């Protein structure tokens, strides 16, 4: 990697570790290696903005060689996460409208609310059968099932049974395969591509992807010419803008992207609600003021709940689902700070580190939703690239609007139904990165019934 600083040799790009805390040691910009990858780490909001604003017409996160290798091995199509260049832009232009336009996304409210109702019932069942009437164990695991059920209800307009007392075997295997794929991804990428077929865990990696691409029995129905259900899936088929193989590739990647954001974020949110009852009470009062009695919140109601949105935003600051994003410069050399970087430079954007930068977020370790409210003093001083949990620009998260709607509807209804309290054991839960950020240990919380007001 050649990195030139204007007028003098570069020192800030020397080889270093890419961990977030290193920003305090090495400054906002340094070079590191991760397996065969050479990476320029960026841990400053202004510099992250400079990288993202020079991303070009067809931005590339990374070339994701291990994910792309699977598709080449099995002759599967790329989707919005793995495709690049003009082909990626074409796929996104077809997928975007019904995923990002508010009028289309709000139409998913009823389907999502039905899943929320089932999850609330599941919480009651878990308390009564496994939690002495109050405890729910492994909340993140249960929310993962909710999120998978929710995104399937949007994509397929059908239910997968994730919230049943006994989860169907195929559904459970899909959920396990997602976890295995993410876990093994960070191992495979450590080795040169030529060695992958000889790695002991390569077969497991391929097997996990094989199951993900089954997408239940959708592929078989399509090959047999049988009708399939689902507003979004049917829309893609009827539009005839994508081949069946491309649709399956995209649907698989949408399922991947649509689960972890919702499940992990709500897990952390409820964890903090239990730790800080004053914030929980403030949120509860907002929800019942907008939706009193037995009124079920809709997407229109969410528009009148700014504190709810601030709570989610603050959770995403402290626990970004993707702790570090990436950009590969494919079109031009770019200037970042006082440095000129050539084409093919891989940047690692250290969002987690910037989220805890006290220059951007005063008192960064405190859970403070007020910092996201309009008119707040902190909000006016914040750098717009201090926390970008859904990415930026045309390569931003395709499922953002659906994920937000799921989180808002679920959290508002859970807080309205239950008072959430800490695990009496007082267990502290820390975060861990398995490609995505997740709780390192189980989150166990008490759910106490509220009286309807």
TrEMBL record:
The keyword Oxidoreductase is annotated on this UniProt entry: yes
Residues covered by region (Disordered): 1-20
Parts forming coiled coils: none
Binding site for heme: 397
Segments of skewed composition (Polar residues): 8-18
Cofactor(s) named in the record: heme
GO terms, biological process: C21-steroid hormone biosynthetic process; cellular response to peptide hormone stimulus; cholesterol metabolic process; cortisol metabolic process; glucocorticoid biosynthetic process; vitamin D metabolic process
Keywords: Heme, Iron, Metal-binding, Monooxygenase, Oxidoreductase
Source superkingdom: Eukaryota
Gene3D superfamilies referenced in this protein's UniProt entry, alphabetically: Cytochrome P450 (1.10.630.10)
Entry-linked InterPro entries: CYP11_CYP27_families (IPR050479), Cyt_P450 (IPR001128), Cyt_P450_CS (IPR017972), Cyt_P450_E_grp-I (IPR002401), Cyt_P450_sf (IPR036396)
Name assigned to this protein: Cytochrome P450 family 27 subfamily A member 3
UniProt organism field: Myripristis murdjan (pinecone soldierfish)
Gene: si:dkey-91i10.3
């Amino acid at each position: 990697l050649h990195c030139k600083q204007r007028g003098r040799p570069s020192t800030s790009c020397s080889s270093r570790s890419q961990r977030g805390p290193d920003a305090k040691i090495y400054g906002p910009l340094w070079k590191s290696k991760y397996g065969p990858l050479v990476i320029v780490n960026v841990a400053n909001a202004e510099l992250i903005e400079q990288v993202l604003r020079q991303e070009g017409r067809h931005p590339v996160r990374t070339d994701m060689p291990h994910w792309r290798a699977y598709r080449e091995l099995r002759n599967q199509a790329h989707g919005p996460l793995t495709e690049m260049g003009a082909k990626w832009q074409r796929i996104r232009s077809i997928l975007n409208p019904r995923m990002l336009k508010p009028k289309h996304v709000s139409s998913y409210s009823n389907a999502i609310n039905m899943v929320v109702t089932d999850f609330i019932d599941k919480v009651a069942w878990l308390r009564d059968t496994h939690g002495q009437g109050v405890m729910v164990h492994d909340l993140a695991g249960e929310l993962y099932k909710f999120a998978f059920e929710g995104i399937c209800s949007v994509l397929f307009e059908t239910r997968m049974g994730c919230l049943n007392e006994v989860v169907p075997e195929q559904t459970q295997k899909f959920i396990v395969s997602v976890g295995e794929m993410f876990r093994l991804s960070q191992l495979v990428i450590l080795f040169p591509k030529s060695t992958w077929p000889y790695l002991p865990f390569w077969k497991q990696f391929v097997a996990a992807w094989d199951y993900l691409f089954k997408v239940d029995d959708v592929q078989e129905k399509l090959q047999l010419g049988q009708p399939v259900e689902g507003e979004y899936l049917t829309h893609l088929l009827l539009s005839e803008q994508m081949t069946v193989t491309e649709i399956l590739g995209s649907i698989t990647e949408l399922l991947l992207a649509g689960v972890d954001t919702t499940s992990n974020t709500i897990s952390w949110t409820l964890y903090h609600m239990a730790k800080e009852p004053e914030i929980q009470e403030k949120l509860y009062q907002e929800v019942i003021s907008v939706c009193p009695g037995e009124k079920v919140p809709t997407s229109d109601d969410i528009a009148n709940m700014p504190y709810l949105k601030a709570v989610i935003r603050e959770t995403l600051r402290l626990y970004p689902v993707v702790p570090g994003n990436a950009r590969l410069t494919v079109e031009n050399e770019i200037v970042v700070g006082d440095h000129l970087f050539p084409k093919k430079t891989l940047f690692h954007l250290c969002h987690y580190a910037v989220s805890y930068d006290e220059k951007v977020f005063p008192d960064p370790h405190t859970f403070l939703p007020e910092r996201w409210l309009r008119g707040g003093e902190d909000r006016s001083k914040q750098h717009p690239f201090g926390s970008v949990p859904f990415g930026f620009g045309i390569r931003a998260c395709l499922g953002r609007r659906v994920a937000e709607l799921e989180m808002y509807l679920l959290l508002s209804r859970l807080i309205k139904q239950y008072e959430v309290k800490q695990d009496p054991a007082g267990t502290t839960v820390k975060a861990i990165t398995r490609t995505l950020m997740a709780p390192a240990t189980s989150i166990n919380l008490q759910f106490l019934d509220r009286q309807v007001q």
